[in-house]
Design brief:
It is a single chain. By secondary structure, the chain is α/β, with parallel strands linked by helices. The chain has helices at residues 21-32, 44-54, 68-81, 105-133, 154-176, 210-223, 233-241, 246-255, 271-278; strands at 12-16, 36-41, 59-62, 87-90, 136-141, 181-188, 227-230. It has a single domain, classed as 3-Layer(aba) Sandwich (Rossmann fold). It is built from 9 helices and 7 strands; from the N terminus they run βαβαβαβαβαβαβααα. The protein has a 7-stranded parallel β-sheet, sandwiched between helices. Helix 1 (21-32) packs across helix 6 (210-223), helix 3 packs across helix 4 and helix 4 runs parallel beside helix 5 (154-176). The termini are far apart. Residues 288-298 have low confidence and may be disordered.
């Protein structure tokens, strides 16, 4: 007999990077289920605008995930205004596109600070509050880049592999601690947000909407699922091809055009996102802030 979905009504959820894109779509889906939503973002003005538009008691708070004290302050404010955090979603992340050899070192540091350290801080802060209550759910938004090596975003791939590995380790640690705390790792394909602008499409999966990812995450909260592939069909492809030798896997990727989705990115279409991502961490600027990366394709 299938388990009944968990009732989420009244639960408090905190979402990092919630001002736009996937974070905003998650907030919308969670509100529909009667959850109490807080969104945090380094762009607090946009976060406040989003909260006002979503309504239903949504609160917006300033958050810089690269600083542990900012994450602590965010969590404190959420709990003061909404109550104990039941669900913590580590969603904030950036994805600059370009050849690894051309990557500015500041860009690499920025990706590690936001995509890896931001998630680590979020998990530590969330766990420190959930463990005394022996309940909660941590959601780490990774990517299918956390399972595959994708040309054109080498450092981003490294950060998402780190998020997947971290999530797996935390799941094991919480089990050893007999803690009733769930962990889910969300792994979407390319999503049609500003982050995904100018990118191609493989033959294995269509471009996703933020709502696709939000609904899959909502289902994970209701079921306690750990691996959240979006779309689910890619998990079957990964499982089957995983038993093949590397040359065969790479040949399949080429046949599906998965190896060119990022490599052939249209950098003109990505201009606005790339410039915003380059300024996403206060105090850490790239060399030549108005310089876009070269188009990756040779």
């Amino acid at each position: 007999m299938a388990k009944q979905p968990r009732i989420l009504t009244g639960q408090v959820v905190a979402i990092t990077g919630g001002a736009r894109g996937i974070g905003r779509a998650m907030a919308t889906a969670f509100l529909r289920e009667g959850m109490r939503v807080a969104i945090g973002d380094v762009d607090v003005a946009t976060a406040q605008q989003t909260a006002e538009q979503l309504g239903r008691g949504t609160i917006a708070l300033e958050l810089d995930v690269t600083r542990r004290e900012s994450v602590e302050q965010f969590a404190d404010a959420v709990e003061q205004q909404l109550g104990p955090i039941d669900v913590f979603v580590n969603n904030a992340g950036i994805m600059p596109v370009g050849r690894f050899i051309d990557e500015d070192d500041a860009s690499a540091h920025r990706q590690l600070d936001i995509n890896v350290h931001g998630v680590i801080y979020g998990c530590k802060v969330a766990m420190s509050r959930m463990l005394p209550r022996n309940r909660g759910h941590i959601v780490n938004v990774a990517s299918q880049a956390g399972k595959f090596g994708i040309p054109g975003i080498a450092t981003y791939v490294a950060t998402k592999h780190a998020v997947v590995g971290l999530s797996e380790a935390l799941r094991g640690e919480l089990r050893h601690m007999n803690a009733d705390i769930d962990v889910s790792v969300v792994m979407p394909n390319i999503v049609g947000t500003e982050l995904g602008s100018g990118l191609g499409q493989s033959r294995a999966s269509k471009i996703l909407t933020p709502e696709d990812v939000a609904e899959a995450t909502l289902e994970a909260l209701q079921t306690g699922r750990f691996d959240v592939w979006v779309p689910k069909s890619v998990q079957a492809i990964a499982t089957v091809t995983g038993v093949f030798p590397r040359p065969a896997r790479e040949a399949i990727a080429r046949a599906l055009k998965a190896d060119k989705v990022i490599w052939d990115a249209d950098m003109t279409a990505r201009k606005n996102y790339e410039l915003r991502a380059a300024h996403s961490e206060p105090g850490l600027e790239p060399n030549g802030t108005e310089q876009l990366p070269e188009k990756t394709a040779s």
